[in-house]
Design goal:
Strand order of the largest sheet: 1-3-2
Largest sheet: 3 strands, mixed
Helix content: 55-70%
CATH class of the largest domain: Mainly Alpha
Bound molecules: zinc ion
Distance between the termini: 60 Å
Radius of gyration: 23 Å
CATH topology of the largest domain: Neurolysin, domain 3
Number of strands: 3
Length: about 500
C-alpha cells in the first residue's frame, strides 16, 4: 500500500467516524433526548460538522489526492480515492461564507415554513424560499456543472445522476403512469379499505413488527427498533449498529407494518455492507436512490405481495386481533394495495407516488435554471398536480408547502425517491431471472434467497459503482422504466379487475 493511500485511508476513517457520531446524535435527538438537551445537542452537532468540514477540505487532503490516481487497478483503492476526490472538490469549491449562509437560512427556514404551512400562508414562506433558491443557485455555480445547474445539486444525493438522464427516464415514467392511474381509478373492482381502519391494539402491532423484521433477516444483535413520529433508519458506523424506527396507530395498522418493512429494507442494506471497509466509501451505501430501492423493494414489492403473506397472513390475523377475523387473504391483499390519486406525497400509494416526484423534479429543475420564479411556485404546482395526478390542491398547505425539503435547502433530493422504485423493480426482475422459483420461495416463507441475491449483487459493492453502473452490473441493463411498469401492471390490474 502506498504511503499516500495509507494516509488517505486514515483521514477517510476519521471522517467516517464523524459521520457515525453525527448519525448517533441525530438518532438520540429523535428517540431519546429530553427537550432541554437541545442546546448542548446543537453545539455538538455544529462541532462535529465543522471538524468534518476541516478534515475534508484540509490542505493535506488536497496534497494526498494530488499524489493518488483514480484509475488504480485495485477497485477498493480506486473507489476510496474517487469518492474522497469528489467530496473534496464539492467542499473546497463552495466559499465558507456561502455554506454558513445556507445553513443559517435553512435552520431558520424550517421554522418559518412550519408556521407558514400551519397558517396556510405562502407569502410568509416565499421570502425565505426565494433566498434559499438564490443561495442554492450560487452553490450550483460554485460547484460547477457540465449542462445544468441542477446536476450539481443532485450530485450530493445521487452521485453521477444528470438532469438530462433523469429527465428522459421521468418523461417516460410520466407517459406510462398517468393512464395507468386513470385506469385504476375508473376500474370496476375497488378494494374495501375499511378493513384497514378498525381496532388494532398496539401490543399486537409491535409483536408483528418485530416478527416481520426478524423474518426479513434484520439482525437485532446489530440493530434496534424504536418508535418515532417520522420513521427512519440510521447506521452508526456501518452494519454493526443499524437503528430503525416505526410508529403505531391503533385505528390503522399499515403505517406501522409497512413503515417497519420500509425501514428494515434500508437497514438490511446497511447490515449488508462489508465490515472490513467500515468508515470508508467502499463500506458505504452507493446513493440515496439505491438506498431507497432497498426499502421500496421490501416494503412494496415483497411486503405488499400476495406471495409474502401466503405463509404469514394467519399469524398477522392472530397478532393483530379480532379485526381481521373473517377477512380473506385476497381482501387483505387488495386493501393494502389500494391506489387513489391524492394530494399528499407521503401518503401516496406506490402507483401515484412517482407522479408526485416528477412534479417536484420538474419544478426544481426549472427553479434552478431560472425558468420558474418563487412567486409563481404555487400556481405552477397546482397546474402540475391537476395535469399529473388529477387532483387540485385546495390550498398551499396541501400543495407546494407540504414538504419540509425546500425549507431546508434540500434541492435535488426528491428524484431519489422515484429512482428508488425504478431500481427496486429492475433488481427484482433480475433476481427473478437468476432464480426462476423466487416467487415460489417467497410464498413458502423464504425471503433469505432474495436477500442473499441483493447482498451479492448490490450491498457488498458499497460505493464501488455509481448508481447506474451498479444497475448495469447487477441487472445487465441501464436503468429503464419497463420493469417497474411491468411490475405495476402485473400486480394491480388483477386486483382492480382489469386483467
Ligand atoms: Zn426510505
Amino acid at each position: 500500500m502506498s504511503d499516500a493511500y495509507a494516509k488517505l485511508l486514515d483521514k477517510l476513517r476519521d471522517i467516517g467516524k464523524l459521520d457515525a457520531l453525527d448519525a448517533l446524535l441525530e438518532w438520540d435527538q429523535d428517540v431519546m433526548m429530553p427537550p432541554k438537551g437541545i442546546t448542548a445537542h446543537a453545539e455538538c452537532v455544529a462541532f462535529v460538522a465543522s471538524e468534518r468540514h476541516k478534515l475534508r477540505t484540509s490542505p493535506e487532503m488536497g496534497e494526498l489526492l494530488e499524489q493518488l490516481n483514480d484509475a488504480d487497478n485495485d477497485p477498493v483503492r480506486a473507489t476510496n480515492v474517487r469518492e474522497a476526490r469528489r467530496k473534496y472538490k464539492r467542499a473546497v469549491k463552495v466559499p465558507a461564507e456561502l455554506i454558513s449562509e445556507i445553513a443559517r437560512t435553512a435552520s431558520k427556514g424550517r421554522d418559518i415554513w412550519a408556521a407558514a404551512r400551519k397558517a396556510n400562508d405562502y407569502a410568509k414562506f416565499s421570502p425565505t424560499l426565494g433566498k434559499l433558491i438564490k443561495l442554492k443557485r450560487e452553490q450550483a455555480q460554485a460547484i460547477g456543472f457540465k449542462e445544468h445547474p441542477y446536476d450539481a445539486l443532485m450530485d450530493e444525493y445521487e452521485p453521477g445522476a444528470t438532469t438530462k438522464d433523469v429527465g428522459v427516464v421521468f418523461d417516460e415514467l410520466r407517459r406510462q403512469l398517468v393512464p395507468l392511474v386513470r385506469a385504476l381509478a375508473d376500474a370496476p373492482n375497488q378494494p374495501d379499505v375499511s378493513i384497514l381502519h378498525r381496532s388494532y391494539p398496539r401490543p399486537g402491532q409491535e409483536k408483528l413488527c418485530r416478527k416481520l423484521a426478524e423474518d426479513l433477516g434484520f439482525d437485532f444483535d446489530a440493530g434496534r427498533l424504536d418508535v418515532t413520529v417520522h420513521p427512519f433508519c440510521t447506521s452508526i458506523g456501518g452494519g454493526g449498529d443499524v437503528r430503525v424506527t416505526t410508529r403505531y396507530d391503533e385505528q390503522f395498522f399499515p403505517p406501522a407494518i409497512f413503515g417497519l418493512m420500509h425501514e428494515v429494507g434500508h437497514g438490511l442494506y446497511e447490515q449488508g455492507l462489508e465490515p472490513e471497509h467500515v468508515f470508508t466509501p467502499m463500506g458505504m451505501y452507493c446513493s440515496l436512490g439505491i438506498h431507497e430501492s432497498q426499502s421500496r423493494l421490501w416494503e412494496n414489492m415483497v411486503g405488499r405481495s400476495k406471495a409474502f403473506w401466503q405463509t404469514r397472513y394467519a399469524l398477522a390475523q392472530e397478532m393483530l386481533g379480532a379485526s381481521l377475523a373473517g377477512v380473506s387473504l385476497d381482501a387483505f391483499h387488495a386493501a393494502i394495495n389500494h391506489v387513489a390519486p391524492s394530494l399528499i406525497r407521503v401518503e401516496a400509494d406506490e402507483v401515484t407516488y412517482g407522479l408526485h416526484i416528477i412534479l417536484r423534479f420538474e419544478m426544481e429543475r426549472d427553479i434552478l435554471s431560472g425558468k420558474l420564479e418563487v412567486d409563481d411556485v404555487p400556481e405552477a404546482w397546482n397546474a402540475k398536480m391537476t395535469e399529473l395526478v388529477g387532483v387540485t390542491p385546495p390550498n398551499d398547505a396541501q400543495g407546494c408547502m407540504q414538504d419540509v425539503h425546500w425549507s431546508m435547502g434540500a434541492f435535488g433530493y426528491f428524484p431519489t425517491y422515484a429512482l428508488g422504485n425504478l431500481y427496486a423493480a429492475q433488481f427484482l426482475a433480475a433476481a427473478k431471472r437468476d432464480i426462476p422459483d423466487l416467487v415460489d420461495r417467497i410464498a413458502a416463507g423464504d425471503t433469505r434467497t432474495l436477500l442473499d441475491w441483493l447482498r451479492r449483487n448490490v450491498h457488498r459493492h458499497g460505493m464501488r459503482y455509481q448508481a447506474n453502473e451498479l444497475c448495469r452490473e447487477a441487472t445487465g441493463e441501464s436503468l429503464s422504466v419497463a420493469p417497474f411498469m411491468q411490475y405495476l401492471e402485473t400486480k394491480f390490474k388483477p386486483i382492480y379487475g382489469l386483467a
